[in-house]
Design goal:
The chain is built from 24 helices and 10 strands. The protein has 583 residues and is α/β, with parallel strands linked by helices. Strands 2-3-4-1-5 form a 5-stranded parallel sheet, with helices on one face. Strands 8-9-10 form a 3-stranded mixed sheet, with helices on one face. The longest helix has 20 residues.
Length: 583
């Protein structure tokens, strides 16, 4: 006789050999012992969890001549005939290929005849959800009131596709995914029986790849044994056969991504491709790795749920402390979207490379989490004194990088602050005896001022002054520095166009990042000072968050609207005046 696959060779022959379905096994054994058998059963569950195996064991047990504690003896003539597939009492039907009304009518005609041997006729209909609507309707009456000697066992992986009229006539049993430790113990037991040497780490990986299906795990194990026949099955060899990636590679890749090392990340992907690793499996495994990190950050009591080795657990703890939860959520979202699209992609490598670019460069996306990540990176660069790419360094004596301050005789760099006798650079603000130049990028120096003005000494602003502030908003923001400038750049200036007595300027921040400034009197005074120097009027500023905005609805400035629209449509825009549009 030829070779038999492991999942067929070691198919359970008694209820006691069924793994991971104790709740079902106990119920069925009790029914057999007490002779309280139902006439229709529905076995639901994912692939490889034992539905068909339990159905066959049940068919043997109800017909067994000498049952032992609810289990078939596997020695009598009926048990042997059912096991060999030659018994007329057990009829297996594949609903995927026999799903018509005529096939069900044949069953209705056959059930009229009692079994010639044994007690029950057992019909096992596999993948029953594939039956047509007409076939389900033809089955209804027979399923509801079958002869006393007939038992129906319906098996399916998609119970939601079965009509409720069928479900209500069956006893439903849900087969759970089998735990990784249960599958691992079974694999170790079979390796001893087969006299094959295998590392526990290798078997554990195969058990995890089975994803709760013992049959899938046995098929993967069979494949690995065949490739290294007569040799010890090691973890590295299993990865090679299955085209998988070691967790150490995921760890190194994650650390490169966190450091923003795009080139090194692409090179790591290149090495995986040269080694013949399957990219679809790589995406799924890396997503799972990120999921473990997320669970580790969520709670300290996740060891049992994660089900990883001690050394991997220590590594996860270390990396969990290196990354924030919202960043992990962003990574998982990107790779989850990739796992859905890569299956149908003609060039999978390009898809994975695009995902790595998104992870390493948050500026490639415009969602809220990506914006937060960009700001965090800028803050880290400022703290470390690293110049932001694209910023123009200062000239003259001693100069600092972005957000830096010029030296005694130096000129501050972009966003910098002039020194004692220095001149502020582009967007800079002079102090001491320096002269501020508030020219924008194009060199428009129409707003220049010397020294400082006290807002209290100026007349209060009128609506037209608030309109002017809205038009000058970007120039005003450029007079600030550091994190305050970053947050202000995404804020929107508004004023109450429906109430002439309300002469406040509302600075509406885009998100929660500006919460620290809402009640910050120093920053409020700084902004009011800058506005006073530009428009020569006293303007009271109020900071609000967009979702908490409590004023009557104002509008954006004409310039701001123009620029925002141009960014989207990339064409000339004419702004039409309207009575309800106040700048």
């Amino acid at each position: 006789m030829g070779y038999t696959a492991l999942y067929r060779k070691f198919r359970p022959s008694t209820f006691d050999e069924v793994k991971g379905q104790d709740h079902i096994v106990k119920t069925l054994k009790n029914q057999i012992r007490a002779d309280r058998l139902g006439h229709a059963y529905l076995f639901c569950g994912t692939r490889g969890t034992g539905k068909t195996s339990v159905a066959k064991i049940f068919a043997k047990a109800v017909n067994c001549e000498h049952p032992v504690d609810g289990n078939p003896c596997n020695a009598c003539a009926m048990c042997r005939a059912i096991a060999a597939g030659s018994s007329m009492n057990v009829i297996e039907i594949d609903a995927a290929s026999n799903n018509g009304v005529d096939n069900i009518r044949e069953i209705r005609e056959e059930v009229a005849y009692s079994p010639t041997a044994g007690r029950y006729k057992v019909y096992i209909i596999d993948e029953v959800h594939m039956l047509s609507t007409g076939a389900f309707n033809a089955l209804l009456k027979t399923l509801e009131e079958p002869p006393s000697y007939v038992i129906f066992i319906l098996a399916t992986t998609e119970a939601q596709k079965i009509p409720i009229t069928i479900l209500s006539r069956c006893q439903r049993y849900d087969f759970h995914r089998i735990g990784q430790e249960t599958i691992l113990a079974r694999l170790q037991e079979l390796m001893e029986t087969e006299q094959v040497e295998a590392e526990e780490k290798a078997l554990r990986y195969i058990a995890r790849k089975g994803d709760g299906s013992l049959r899938d795990s046995l098929s993967l194990l069979d494949q690995c044994i065949a490739f290294y026949l007569g040799e010890t099955l090691t973890y590295d060899r299993v990865l090679e056969v299955l085209g998988a990636v070691d967790t150490d590679v995921f760890s190194q890749l994650l650390r490169r991504i966190l450091r923003g090392e795009l080139t090194e990340s692409i090179r790591a992907l290149e090495q995986l491709i040269l080694q013949g690793r399957d990219l679809t499996q790589f995406v799924n495994d890396f997503t799972w790795y990120l999921r473990n990190l997320m669970l580790m950050k969520a709670s300290d009591d996740m060891e049992d749920i994660l089900d990883v080795s001690t050394e991997n657990l220590a590594q996860l703890r270390e990396e969990a402390a290196m990354v924030r939860s919202d960043t992990l959520m962003r990574y998982i979202r990107i790779f989850s979207e990739l796992s859905n699209s890569i299956r149908y992609a003609t060039n999978k490598r390009v898809q994975v490379e695009m995902a790595l670019i998104k992870l390493c460069t948050p500026q490639a996306e415009k969602d809220e989490i990506s914006l937060v990540e960009r700001i965090r990176r800028l803050e880290r660069m400022v703290e470390q004194g690293v110049a932001v790419p694209g910023a123009r360094p200062g000239q003259g004596g001693v100069t600092d990088g972005v957000y830096g301050a010029g030296g005694a005789n130096g000129m501050a760099g972009t966003y910098g602050t002039g020194g004692v006798s220095g001149t502020a650079g582009t967007y800079g603000a002079g102090n001491g005896h320096g002269q501020s130049n508030y020219a924008d990028v194009t060199g428009d120096a129409s707003f220049q001022d010397v020294g400082s003005i006290s807002p209290a000494a100026l007349p209060k602003a009128a609506p037209e002054d608030l309109k002017k502030v809205c038009e000058m908003w970007k120039t005003i923001v450029n007079g600030t520095s550091g994190m305050f400038r970053v947050v202000l750049s995404s804020a929107v200036p508004k004023y109450n166009s429906r109430d002439e007595n309300d002469k406040r300027l509302y600075v509406v921040f885009a998100d929660f990042l500006a919460e620290r400034y809402l009640n910050n009197a120093e920053r409020k005074a700084e902004l009011e000072q800058l506005i006073a120097e530009r428009v020569g009027k006293q303007v009271e500023v109020k900071f609000v968050i967009s979702q908490d905005e409590g004023l009557q609805r104002g509008t954006l400035s004409k310039i701001d609207i123009d620029e925002r629209v141009r960014e989207q449509v990339h064409m000339d825009i004419d702004i039409v005046e309207d009575d309800d549009l106040q700048n």
